[in-house]
């Protein structure tokens, strides 16, 4: 209802004392006519006054002692309605200035108070510091106006103790400085009584004790007690141990005493995987621990570099991790990871499929079963045949096969992994064997792995053959790598290839070429043998030829043809072979001999008959 308000309150007014009441009118009905009040800006009177948000009454919030002055304190009060509680309406406001004079009823009623130092606070100064070295800044305040004598403060050190002779204080700024060089070994702790007074009438003052600790000069750097050319410390820990596993403990030395002898440690090199951590002990030693399990097959040893530093300097970044033997703050630590048997042996090729010819000779090596163990100190791996079963593909057998007979068909060397034939396979054509092979290298139970090897018995007419333009001896040395290279390219297509043997090449005219070699092959998909027609389609496709071209060129493959020649073609070739004509000639000579013998017999018989008749006559 007014453009501004003015009020006067004495500085000795009690808490919650009434000062004035603001009255704002709003002609609206409902929430839009309800008025609320708030202090929008208190200025220098911050925290001195409060307003009732409903009635608009302004009261004293805290003591006003020492706040009296000639100029008024200016406040801005806002009145606002609750229009925002009505749909589609907004709150309306109005601000008004309020001036409050605080009357000064006493000449010096404000008592100084010390802000710093706090009660029992300790200041520090380093021993041997030059005279005049700053020690502590005293901070005080007075409720009275600092522009008046009652608010002007002065600082002093009471000479009640002998310690006062070692320090001086600036009477106007409160800065404490040294008056003499301090020796920590002679006296390490001083107690001085500070006094802060104002210049009012009557004069007001306050005192506080300040403790001053003389600090030791830290003039030694920590280092390790090692020779310049000393080797690393050697520790060891088992692999796969949990985090926080103790690796070892060591310590550096510092010739200072007390806190100045405290040492921190930092790994500065050799632990790129963050496998280790350092824990400082109360006596400034250090314990080396793991941060996570370590796999010995990935990391068999570490050589880390540790640096010792003054305690509290770990926040600084240490640049560089090169070990310098002349820097005695560095030490190398060698950590050996001890192997445990935590890996099962594994087959190089799990659940493989191969093929053998129906007429494969006894004691022929048909494949090598290989297994490995990632453990570095693993025991030798033993391979054994656990079970053999036979699966006919195109007919059912009328009589069961004895298990002992099947096991005798194969023999497996338990160390080299050579799988050899042990009998005839004529009765098992067009079927396959499933050989369950077991590998283990531990006496512990269940520390073994199984793999199933499928062995198909295949007729020659169902096989293809690689033709190599190189000698059989050279191909036999490289046939394993050749098969591996092909398998790498066929595997993405879901195909598996097995080469049965390598022999001197017999050409289609039955002539033998000792400068070339032939190797019959069989392909498999999903563990099943692929038919001859499908193999021809795959191997003769332009895409496959292009895919295998570089391997063919590297190993001298000139062609891919049938492993067994068609009989018609074989008969035709026999007619053109020189040896065939010799056989025909021998047959004709034999036939002529028979005819001559028969003719001679007939002539002899006729002669005898003629002679007999002549004698009778």
UniProtKB/TrEMBL annotation:
GO cellular component: cell-cell junction; plasma membrane
Keyword hit for Membrane: yes
UniProt cross-references to CDD domains, sorted A to Z: Cadherin_repeat (cd11304)
Residue ranges crossing the lipid bilayer per the database entry: 581-603
The entry's keywords: Calcium, Cell adhesion, Disulfide bond, EGF-like domain, Glycoprotein, Membrane, Repeat, Transmembrane, Transmembrane helix
The keyword Calcium belongs to this UniProt entry's keyword annotation: yes
Chain coiled-coil ranges: none
Pfam families to which the protein is assigned, alphabetical: Cadherin
Superkingdom of the organism of origin: Eukaryota
GO process annotations (BP): animal organ development; cell differentiation; developmental growth; establishment of planar polarity; establishment or maintenance of cell polarity; homophilic cell adhesion via plasma membrane adhesion molecules; system development
SMART domains named in the record: CA
Start and end residues of each Cadherin domain: 1-114, 125-224, 229-347
A Gene Ontology molecular function term of the record: calcium ion binding
Membrane topology term: Single-pass type I membrane protein
Compartments where located: Cell membrane
UniProt protein name: Cadherin 1
């Amino acid at each position: 209802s007014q453009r501004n308000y003015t009020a006067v309150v004495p500085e000795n007014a009690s808490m919650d004392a009434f000062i004035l009441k603001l009255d704002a009118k709003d002609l609206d009905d409902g929430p839009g006519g309800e008025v609320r009040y708030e202090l929008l800006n208190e200025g220098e009177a911050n925290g001195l006054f409060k307003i009732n948000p409903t009635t608009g009454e302004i009261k004293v919030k805290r003591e006003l002692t020492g706040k009296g002055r000639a100029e008024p304190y200016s406040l801005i009060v806002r009145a606002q309605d609750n229009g925002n509680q009505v749909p589609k309406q907004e709150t309306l406001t109005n601000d008004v200035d309020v001036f409050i004079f605080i009357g000064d009823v006493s000449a010096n009623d404000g008592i100084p108070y010390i802000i710093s130092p706090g009660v029992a606070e300790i200041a520090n100064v380093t021993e041997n510091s030059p005279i005049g070295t700053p020690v502590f800044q005293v901070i005080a305040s007075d409720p009275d106006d600092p522009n008046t004598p009652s608010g002007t403060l002065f600082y002093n050190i009471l000479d009640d103790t002998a310690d006062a002779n070692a320090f001086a204080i600036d009477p106007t700024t409160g800065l404490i400085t040294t008056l003499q060089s301090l020796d920590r070994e002679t006296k390490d702790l001083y107690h001085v009584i500070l006094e802060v007074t104002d210049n009012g009438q009557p004069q007001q003052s306050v005192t506080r004790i300040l403790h001053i600790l003389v600090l030791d000069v830290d003039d030694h750097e920590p280092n390790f007690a090692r020779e310049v050319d000393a080797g690393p410390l050697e520790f060891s820990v088992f692999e796969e141990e949990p985090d926080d596993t103790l690796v070892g403990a060591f310590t550096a030395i510092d010739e200072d005493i007390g806190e100045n002898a405290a040492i921190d440690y930092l790994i500065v090199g050799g632990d790129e995987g963050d496998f280790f951590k350092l824990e400082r002990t109360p006596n400034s030693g250090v314990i080396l621990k793991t941060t996570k399990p370590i796999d010995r097959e990935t990391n068999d040893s570490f050589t880390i570099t540790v640096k010792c530093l003054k305690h509290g300097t770990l926040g600084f970044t240490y640049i560089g991790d090169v070990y310098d033997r002349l820097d005695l703050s560095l030490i190398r630590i060698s950590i050996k990871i001890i192997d445990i048997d935590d890996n099962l042996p594994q087959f190089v090729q799990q659940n493989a499929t191969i093929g053998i010819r129906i007429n494969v000779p006894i004691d022929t090596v048909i494949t090598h079963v290989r297994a490995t163990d990632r453990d570095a100190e693993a025991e030798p791996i033993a391979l054994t045949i656990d079970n053999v079963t036979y699966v006919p593909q195109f007919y059912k057998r009328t009589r069961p096969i004895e298990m002992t007979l099947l096991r005798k068909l194969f023999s497996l060397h338990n160390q080299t992994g050579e799988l050899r034939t042990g009998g005839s396979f004529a009765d098992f054509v067009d079927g396959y064997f499933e050989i369950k092979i077991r590998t283990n290298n531990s006496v512990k139970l269940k520390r073994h792995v199984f793999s199933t090897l499928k062995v198909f018995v295949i007729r020659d007419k169902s096989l293809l053959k690689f033709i190599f333009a190189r000698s059989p001896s050279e191909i036999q040395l490289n046939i394993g790598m050749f098969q591996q290279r092909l398998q790498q390219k066929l595997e993405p297509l879901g195909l598996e290839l097995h080469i049965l043997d390598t022999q001197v090449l017999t050409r289609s005219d039955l002539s033998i070429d000792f400068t070339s070699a032939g190797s019959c092959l069989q392909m498999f998909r999903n563990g099943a043998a692929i038919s001859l027609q499908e193999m021809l389609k795959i191997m003769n496709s332009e895409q496959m030829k292009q895919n295998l071209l570089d391997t063919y060129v590297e190993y001298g493959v000139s062609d891919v043809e049938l492993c067994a020649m068609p009989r018609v073609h074989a008969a035709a070739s026999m007619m053109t072979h020189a040896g065939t004509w010799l056989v025909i000639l021998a047959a004709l000579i034999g036939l002529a001999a028979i005819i001559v013998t028969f003719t001679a017999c007939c002539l002899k018989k006729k002669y005898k008959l003629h002679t007999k008749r002549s004698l009778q006559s």
